Amino acid sequence: MARISTYTVVPKLPRKLAALTTISNNLWWCWDPEAIELLYRMDRDLWDETNQNPKRMLGQISQERLEELARDDSFLAHLKRVAESLDQYMQGSTWRHDKDPKVPKGFRVAYLSAEFGLHESVSIYSGGLGVLAGDYLKAASDVGIPMVAIGLLYREGYFRQYLNADGWQQEQYPENDFYRMPIEIVRDKTGEPVIIEVDYPERPVKARIWKCQVGRVPLYLLDCDFPENHENDREITGQLYGGDRDMRIRQEIMLGMGGIRALRALRIQPTTYHMNEGHSAFMTVERIRDLMRREPLNFDQAVDAVRAGSMFTSHTPVPAGNDMFEPSMMQRYFSQYVKDVGITMDQLLALGRQTPHDRHEPFCVTVLALKLSVASNGVSQLHGQVARDMWTRTWPGLPKDEVPITAITNGVHTRFWISRDLAGLYDRYLGPAWVLNPHEQATWDRIDEIPDTELWRTHERRRERLVNFARRRLSKQLRHRGAPYGEIVASAEALDPEALTIGFARRFATYKRANLFLLDPERIKRILTQESRPVQFIIAGKAHPADTQGKEIIRNIVHFAREPGLRSHIVFIEDYDINVARYMVQGVDCWLNTPRRPMEASGTSGMKAAANGALNISIPDGWWCEAEKLGENGWSIGRGETYDNTNEQDVVESETLYEILEKESVPMFYKRTAGGVPREWVRRMKTAIRTICPRFSSNRMLLEYAERFYIPFSKRRNDLRANDRVRALALTAWKQKVQRCWSKVHFAGVESGPMEGLPFGSHLQVTAEVCLDELTSDDVVVEIYYGDIDRRDQISNGKTVATECTKKLHDNVYRFEGAILCDKTGQQGFTVRVIPSHEDLGHRHETGLITWA
User: Fold this and answer.
1) CB 222 within 8 Å of CB 231
2) Which residue(s) pair with 852 in the sheet?
3) Which fold has domain 439-695?
4) How many CB atoms lie under 10 A from the CB of residue 615?
């Protein structure tokens, strides 16, 4: 076959339109309404046809239209305003790191994620995890926190969905055209592409680096799909979540280990590395090897150094979402690695096992991330509890509530998800604060200043736009399926722009129970088809290509929607993406969420809907457990009860959903005052906006990460690295001593004062004698652990009281004394424990060691 030479063609823009190139190459435009309007007015039909991709649109728009725009003074003035806004945005910084001495020198965060949902024109995301990562980068850009992100650039991204005539999900995998996406390949000073190499068993694999500029934050994406790689290796960045387990580990090696090599090639030196889910966990082992090559560190010292600068966020309580690899697979991919760092394969496998010496336990990247991070968190308060329960074996002997996994609840990028209509309303009544400080409560306390009628009319316009959008999509879907002409014509009348509209859109995993509302078909039919109070559902979402149960749920919904009298009340929108999500969260009256608790880690779609004034109807799971307590901003399906029988749970919770619709939501929506405004409904809309917007803002989320993790841990890392790592090396040596001695640490005796009939407010004195082997009292903390006694004679809801070393006895036995305040009546219990203690530990349970009396 003839050799093909490639060349690249770029749009020929008139000189007056040159700024369009800069604007189209920075995704800042996608959350700036005036920039979106500028691009939209260039060619409205082409804007929609190109999936709102400005770079692609510039490559397809006619030269005649460009010349026409170059002569349009109104357009040129608009272009100048947007270009100046972008320039001011890029030059400015709203965060305090410019002047705050608490922020360490060189502070920079590296954020690694397998997917980023930034905008529909950058198709490298599948669902909530990616969209959260996209909102995170937008917030980092707005706040001004120095951040760099790392991901993979998938040739086919995630699949595109369509349904066949029977309603069964089909998948398409159209290729991304990188040269027509808002990304650019990274080149060195000579103009050549920057290329890294990652070692695999068969051969090294090369990766190009592309940059997607997200406001002030650069996102670097690794791409293996080019001719210099073997055909099989090009598939590493072929599909998001495609392929088998072997492909998964190959992708995660490229993301984690390749990501670190990319940062090194770009000469970027972060102070904190943030793993967004376990897919990027192999970045820790690459950093260990890199440190050992560059500095005279042994493996244990490098582990401690890497841990000091790493943190991890878990996003799923579903076991299948935590990737595990068999020891044989790890042997295949990491046999050379263990030789490079001078350890055994068992030592490496132990880092990814909850029970390190269990040779049958697979290697879990989540466990690796937990063990090699100074801080770990779930993405809602409930998820933090669930994660502590899931991973408690990683810290044997530790009470579940002390497992070092905390929680930072997710948030959403308000400006990106707010409709333009509502944004105008916020501008008038809330001022610029809702854009600049969306996380501050005072910003949203002014929501009551918006007249009820004005808010309601704005919302009605959004609902009408959603209905029109759904009709267009439905018509397109029917034509694609070859539906009868009459059915296509009838689609123009589907849905009612004035009816109560409920949205449900998410992955069709079975635990999300998208079909819960169908459990009693006749009852839901009655709810939907009341002549004076109609209700309608707009539904969207994808099932994983291998999830036949999820596909069956979609099929059942589609078949139900075809029943007589229901076609105008239920619409399923195919190919759920960010564009569909925007229309839905901006236009629905209620947002429905029905996961089987506690399997929803957080959920962010309801936050986006609430920011647009929608009321949530949700199982109290994930974020909603926190939101529902803030005021009358929606309805909860149950009170978070647990069930042994899932069928019983489905029946009870579906009945509760019907009750909410029949007795509360529907009557309230249709109870109108003069002028046709549902005053009570609007009051709840305002409550939802006031209570949910600040608390669940991505700015709040990002600042919480910065204040709790990024800044203190970057400072600690820098302190440990100072003076040739003298403190870090001392800490590692101390840990090794503790590990060596700990098996001999034990209690020689525990005594207390009288334990019956203690008066309320008195103290129970406790004395413990502890043998510490070669350790001293300065190496440990001895605590009294006390609390209520449950029916298994175990302490529940335990509290701790520190003791004081009062005397060294003989043979390294030390006496510790303390007292319990008797501030609660009834039967209580106590025990005593000893844990290692050092001022430079990242958290008190970092060693994973504990001995109980």
Assistant:
1) no
2) 833
3) Rossmann fold (3.40.50)
4) 25
